[in-house]
Amino acid sequence: MKKKGVFLLALMLAAGLSITACSQQQSNDQQNAAPAQKADKRAFQQWDKPPAMQIDPNKTYIAHVDTNKGSFSIELFAKDAPKTVNNFVFLAREKFYDGIIFHRIVKDFVIQVGDPQAKGNVQNLKNNPQIGAGGPGYQFEDELSSKHKYEKGIVAMANSRPNTNGSQFFIGSGAGVETLNTQPYYTIFGKVIAGIDVVEAIANTPVEQGIHKEPTPSFPKENVFIKTITIEEK
Question: Where is the secretion signal located (predicted)?
């Protein structure tokens, strides 16, 4: 696939859900910042179309996600969402997610990540209106299914409207995510099978209101980011 310049996607989850967010003292730990964009040549890696199919839907794929808060593992639903899992595996193997901050955190609802612009120190990103709108340079269609339900630990794609999937995804961090079962617009492609305590730790990150003035504060006060994702195939 051909790479191209930065292409911004509006990949935001629906707002206005009645969910409680936490708010604690701000952290200024510069040494815990995600790798800066200038230090990572892959930070704005872009392509002009989705990846060709490279997974075998009949095999089992486990994504081991290493973050600065600890590690967790996701069983990927290759049979139920092959295009979505293929996309995730491709981006993970390309190290696309390395260093990306969880830019949206709502306790007992979701933690969201995958915008390649969200690198560096969160306090330097707080007033950037484009944070939360980035992607890999392409979009692909939904793979909606009634087989899985939104619940704690579930992993699904974030989007702005039907068939606008890219690189951003969210993980259900509490019972609040079950409200999405009344509007199943997001492709479910995996579930956390180990390390749910790490997801909970990320969900407990203190947050504040971001530049978009969302009803529920969700922008992290601390740097919580993916170090790398390793795909296990068996």
Answer: 1-23
